[in-house]
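Notebook, bench 3.
Goal today: get a predicted structure for Dihydrolipoamide acetyltransferase component of pyruvate dehydrogenase complex from Defluviimonas salinarum so we can plan the truncation constructs. The sequence was checked against the plasmid map this morning, with no discrepancies at the termini. Length recorded as 384 residues. Pasting the sequence as submitted so the record is complete.
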Amino acid sequence: MGEFRMPSLGADMEAGTLVEWLKAPGDRVARGDIVAVVETQKGAIEIEVFEDGLLERTLVGTGTTVPVGTPLAVIRAPGEAAAPTPTPEPEAPAPEPVPRPEPAAPPPASGERLRITPLARRLAEKKGLDEARLRAIAGTGPEGAITLRDLEAPGEAPAEPAAPMTEMRAAIAAAMARSKREIPHYYLAQQVDLTPASAFLAAANADRAPEDRILMGALFLHAVTRAAREYPEFNGHFTDGAFHPSAEIHAAMAVALRGGGLVAPAILDAGACDLASLMARMRDTLGRVRTGRFRARELSEATITVTSLGERGVDTLYGVIQPPQVAIVGFGTPAERPVVRDGTIAAAMTTTVTLAADHRVSDGHRGALFLRAIDRNLQEPEAP
């Protein structure tokens, strides 16, 4: 028998609340199946199982908060005999209940579970919306999930961030304070000419539908993963006093959440993706994260982070490393700036790329080479 435990979903996580079981005792499960939803300061996270077998029994009920590492369920391996059922002790006869009026029975729920994000569920409770009324709402989230936007009336101001947003901010502060306290950061910056990248995107997107177009953010992520293959000391985890490079590149994207807060889910094995598949996976991840649903591995297995403030007009940003990672790459807002070409000044689309890295693992010389590799990759965006 194997134990399915509350996973650690980041260096700042100490406990989680079991929100929902997606598998029931007696169901067969396979490695990678999502079996439960856990809520942390970062939102609702879908938890995968890492072994094949049969869900023998659950050990924790919904709504229960337990520390990281607590057994949540027992999984029986294929071919393993069922565990003996303990014989219950005889119970003393219960006292006769005092008759009292029964409340009206709630309307029966349909067989399909209600899909609703945690923030939307809190707003529904605040508005007094029962399950029957919620089922009448057409959700716009993944797989028809009801989102915060679906519950806000036209013209209504967005709901105030709930208490868990304060908890998220506290969790972010704790993780970043730990990072600055324990990790000796060093910082580098380089301006990169985006003329070849912009021309490549214009040609690549000419015949694509809007929903299939490749965005500059995908080129940034692709350039970083290619550079990380060349300079592996920036891709991995520093744990137990030593650096452990990762064979796979799980590139995290810093994402600002609607209503406040920040998470950095990873595109798993991003280093093996071509540009089109990387863009598709970025869209899928962003869509799920912004409706409050993402997966455990996307938080726990990131090996390097990429951050950008998009079109917010920030020329340069310096990130703080997310432990146990050892590097974070930042991209400033692309804009036309003066550059010198062949002795003359010209206008060109550029961005400032920054690196914050762990001095226990690398130094400024290697960091400069890593930034130059990112620059070179953006000059040759069509390369695999």
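The longest strand covers residues 344-358. Residues 285 and 294 are 7 Å apart (CA to CA).
Flagging this for group meeting.
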